[in-house]
Amino acid sequence: MIRHRPHGSGHPYSDDTEQRSPVHPVAAEPLRLGVRTSGPVTGVALEYAVDGAAVEPVALAPVLRSSRGQAVDGGHLASAQARKARQAGGWQTEIVAPDAGSRLRYRFRAAREDGTEQRTRWFETRVASWRAAGPEVLGVEGDAVPVIPGSIEVLSDGERVRRVRFALPLAEGEHVAGFGERYDALDQRGAALDSVVFEQYKSQGAHRRTYLPMPFAHVVGGAGWGFHVRTSRRVSFDVGAERADRVVIEAEVDAPAGAERAVEVALYSGSPAVVLDRFLAEVGRPAELPDWVFGLWASGNEWNTQAEVLRQMELHREHRIPVRNVVIEAWSDESSFTIFRDARYAVREDGGPMRLSDFTFPADGAWPDPKGMVDALHEEGVRVHLWQIPLIKMRPHPVGQAAADARAAREAGVLIREETPDGGLRPYRNRGWWFPLSLMPDLTDERAARWWTEKRRYLVEEVGVDGFKTDGGEHAWGAELAYLDGRRGDEANNTFPTAYAAAYGRLLESAGKAPVTFSRAGFTGSQAHGAFWAGDENSTWEAFRWSMLAGLSAAASGIVYWGWDIAGFSGPIPDAELYVRAMAASVFVPIMQYHSEFNHHRLPSNDRTPWNIAERTGDAAVIDEVRELVELRERLVPYLAESARATIRTSRPLMRPLFFDHPDDERVWAHPIQWLLGDDVLVAPVLEPGAVTWEVYLPQGEWIDARTGAAVTGGAPHLADVAARATVPVFVREPAWERLREVFRPRD
């Protein structure tokens, strides 16, 4: 076998051995070409021609094969399939791309030990170059700032424009924030980043990648303005990294050479709230969710039986820790993701929707009475959310209903497709590390989305579930993917997670329920669809800081209902101090949720429940501290609900970075991980171990220390006493104190 894939796997941050890099060659720059082979191959040669003129063949050198960003095994997402694939041979060569506009035609020949030869098909591409372009190539709406004269360039091969580059001015003292959910910093000035949906498993702040990007930002500190690049394709931003006086924006496009408005940018003038309001008017405003989403959410990946879920909820009651939501991740057969594990049923060969009456649930099974369980939880005031993944699992080979669903999906034509080696189309097989080779429904298509969600309708209408954890919206890799509406992956992949959450929201609404989805991935437009959490992260102080920055940047981009896995969900459990400090901060985060990763049921347990942390750390005080914090959260729910309604009405974020209300106060940027919760509550979480005091910056005005009731005048840093680890510095605007005093019950 010899294989060359011009686009590779589609990993946005790593090239594969067998791809063309760059995919669109640039004149006079290096062009790397590679293949993957199997079997006893002695050598590989590149044959190519430029504008029909043959060039001397070039020998490829053997290289360590890299695929999907991995050259070595590692991480719980690595698969046996990936390890096997890397054993295949890799071969590469590098040439200099010929002149701009020339047509490059090439193929590969592999010589085998037995004297035979294998060849790939011929591939063709045109060579591009960067050139200056006129203003007509860029559609500009608004006049907040001018596009820098002479900065507009296009990457064109003479037939198609592949990228557009332009620059916007940055004044001294301006700060740039937003870009969706960003873990590394609130102010991105001096950084380079992009907008591509990507599953970065842990350490998102270190890698500077995100599940939820947006090509939108605020520019704060001068006249006040913002921008939105109106595209779902990848956009790169140099935010004063190379030249401090400008933001250089480079957007992928696919337009005829000479086309006008190959990409559009909206420029908004005004305060951060005005800028955000104008952005949301374009892309969709948040929808109000029920007040119960502001209660505690509890989850553990090893709560995989009805008995265990009920036991954990009973432990909340036993320890008097109020809980309003439970997320059940490991509920399904792990194959269809529509059927409770151990349920008995007759396979529906046409893959159509099933009803609760189609199933029987053995008394000794994992879920002997799902509806009874949900009813019982509802009686206790607990809402139930089931985990989902937008894939049809194909490894191991599906059987039963999963096999019927896979056949039906192919026959119904509801799948995303990919190119075959001969240039045709076949169902796309997931190239990510999680559930590799699975089929993927095109949830951006209304018919396909309805086909998919109807199979889950009985869970809502008959079992009674209240929401879905819409996990894993990042699996669409590859610019060449084919969507049902004719778009390619370069345009559609980023939109998938938004459509995914929207599809489940429509299902819930059609059953008379609120559209409560809980997603980690998203893009422009996700603001209108449910709640979000910050994704997979370790239990470390560093991850704590990264997560708070993620929440603030997401809020600055219009996400209202946001949370994180309190104190992290992966790896060794957090110590008692980190756990309680993180829990204290999360009282003042819109979604308050703890969760833990699957640990193969090894003992001791890695659950992030208060009682397990207390037992594992030997610190019984954890339970009392968490109880007090969750009780405070319960008292705060009316304020949160009222503030969320105001946020939706005014576009002033619920978890609000201080620059929104104080854009001209340079000192807020020295304390980036502080926020206003609604209009009246300022929060400054303790983000380091061993702290006994914590510096808080209080903007101008009169404030009340919510813990002590003491008055403090703003306009300067304030040193708060945080020796008690369940303490988080919180200050209330003086005019609101009488209204909120009973929420905090200060120790006068």
Keywords:
single chain, 748 residues, alpha+beta, 6-stranded antiparallel beta sheet, 39 strands, 26% strand, globular
Structure description:
The protein is α+β, with helices and mostly antiparallel strands and 748 residues long. 22% of the residues lie in helices and 26% in strands. It is built from 15 helices and 39 strands. The strands form eight sheets. It has an eight-stranded parallel sheet with strand order 27-24-23-22-31-30-29-28. A six-stranded antiparallel sheet has the order 11-13-14-20-19-16, with no helix packed on it. Strands 32-33-34-39-36-37 form a six-stranded antiparallel sheet. Strand 29 (531-533), helix 11 and strand 30 form a beta-alpha-beta unit.
Coarse morphology: globular
Count the E strands. Answer: 39
The number of helical elements comes to 15
Structural class, by secondary structure, is alpha+beta
Low-confidence stretches: 72-87
Radius of gyration: 27 Å
Strand content: 25-35%
The helical percent reads: 10-25%
Topology, element by element:
Elements: E1 2-3, E2 20-21, E3 30-37, E4 41-50, E5 53-59, E6 61-63, H1 80-86, E7 89-96, E8 103-112, E9 117-119, E10 123-126, E11 129-132, E12 138-141, E13 153-156, E14 160-169, E15 175-180, E16 191-194, H2 204-207, E17 213-220, E18 225-229, E19 235-239, E20 246-256, E21 263-269, H3 272-283, E22 296-299, H4 306-318, E23 325-328, H5 370-379, E24 383-388, H6 400-412, E25 417-419, E26 425-427, H7 446-454, H8 457-463, E27 467-470, H9 489-492, H10 496-510, E28 518-519, E29 531-533, H11 541-556, E30 562-565, H12 576-586, E31 591-594, H13 610-617, H14 621-650, E32 655-657, E33 675-677, E34 681-683, E35 693-698, E36 702-705, E37 711-713, E38 716-721, E39 730-733, H15 737-744
Parallel strand pairs: 12-21, 22-23, 22-31, 23-24, 24-27, 28-29, 29-30, 30-31
Antiparallel strand pairs: 1-3, 2-3, 3-7, 4-5, 4-8, 6-7, 8-9, 8-10, 11-13, 13-14, 14-20, 15-17, 16-19, 17-18, 18-21, 19-20, 25-26, 32-33, 33-34, 34-39, 35-38, 36-37, 36-39
Helix pairs in contact: 7-10, 12-14, 13-14, 14-15
